[in-house]
Amino acid sequence: MIRFWGQPKFSREPLEPIGYELFLREYNVDSWEVPSNFGKFSAAEIADLLVRTAPQLPAKMTYISLNLDIDQFVDPVFLQAFFAIKQQLTNTKLSIELTERAGQLNVSDNQLVTAAQRFKTAGFHVILDDVSSGDNQLQRVELLNPFVHEYKFAIQNFRPFASLEEIIPNLVFWRNCAQRNQKLFTIEGVESKQDLLLLSHYHADMFQGFALGRPIYLPTQDDPHNVIVQSNNLY
């Protein structure tokens, strides 16, 4: 059995929850776990879960984003599955986050551009997750810019550090890139009120992090009343 867990995304002004980033989790024996192999879940399974989850979301949580690994992102079957259910996601604006995971397939620049263009043409917002980390460096960002709606800068990818001030120059670089290219800019990994106070000066559009909200279980329409939602290390 699979379900989504959602971490709230907060607008900066006013600071309030406006949506969720969705994380796929699998029930194993007696707890929910991060799947060891995301590739075993088909596009149809994930799309069906979206349809059953979306009507249960709070009315104000209209912006949801779904992570796709790079090999899923370039697979047209995933676009087709999400486009087929788009009209059923009433009051929900679905974005696709291009993420990275160890052991993924090698994908060409042409495949990435084609996939991003197709998602945009189909009416989906594309989010580049973890800019400045892994392969989502400036070269890839510039390559996909015409089709991307949002950059996400993940503070947790740079921990541990002695002080948050250490990464501010890097954060400012990407904030400026977002402003120059007219993209939304999200800072994730906000873990304390002190983080939030400092980061609020850098004009992000949205924030995510444990200080604002940890991932929570998102029920479906057909969940049994005794569903178990406890687990360790779900993020």
UniProtKB/TrEMBL annotation:
One matching Pfam family: EAL
List the PROSITE patterns hit by this protein, alphabetically.
Answer: EAL
Any idea where the EAL domain is?
1-229
Recorded GO MF terms: cyclic-guanylate-specific phosphodiesterase activity
Name it. C-di-GMP-specific phosphodiesterase
Q: What organism does the UniProt record list as the source?
A: Pediococcus ethanolidurans
